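Onboarding guide, step 5: your first structure request.
Type a short instruction followed by the sequence, for example:

Predict the 3D structure of this protein.
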Amino acid sequence: MKQVLPKLILLILLFVPCVGQTTEAIRFDVFNQSYYAEAIARMDAAASTLMKTPNLSIYIIVTGHEKYAGIPHRYGNRLRNYLVDYPGMDAKRIVAIGGACQEEQLTEIWLVPDGANPPVPTCNFSSEKIPANQLTQFDRYKIQFPSEGGWDVWDGSFEDEFTRLGKVAELLKQRSDLSLYIIARAQGVYEYKPFGKKMSDGKRKYIQVRSRKLSDPVGTDQKIASGEKRYLINKYRLKASRIIALGRGYNSLSKPDEQILDSDDVTGATFIARTVELWLVPKNTPKTKLSKIFQH
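The system replies with structure tokens like these:
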């Protein structure tokens, strides 16, 4: 972080005089997935340049991740949301674009003068890339309730409904043969509970069991899924019949831990966060393939 700030200050000093004179888009910065403080420092530098040069727009292009095409769109809009919160910042001057075709995540910040051609990502994800008769898992993300506070910029902060669902809504608008399955799981909290009788040395076996008291209330999974569906219907006027919202219980441990402990050593709990999966399903997909959605 200490090495980043001097470089960013130098960037600002060099770029501000130049961008006011050019008529072409300039790549202001590029970086791999960063820690919160570094990513925000880079956004601050871009915002400073934008505020000093009123004829500019900022384009944030995030490319990667091969596994889920929705990830770069969410990351780009998280950064955009941070800039939009600047006092006096014009949201129309900040554009976020995501593309998915590589394993390594890369973020580019472009400064685009009025009238200049905007940058285009080398690999944008469009509805034409969704194959017929095949399930496509577009995204998987953690979700928090507003009352619980924020995470950092890479782990969920600044992630509103548009950030999570804007791109998938665009894809559904582009192709009327697509349906969307929203699969939500509630947060499970696992504590150590005694199992069996005490041993001769006074110790006991403890295993991790989901705590009903600390885990989300029953029905939270369906509440989350239905909330995402409701946003898509109200905001984008999508037909309710094209969106299937399903709660699938609690996120669980892949393998509950077991330990031999004294009763005084039993402390702590393991939190498995809430998640949402978005699956795009073409109209003629065989029903036998749908079982894959519920195996995750």
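Each response can be followed by summary notes, for example: The chain is about 25% helix and 30% strand.
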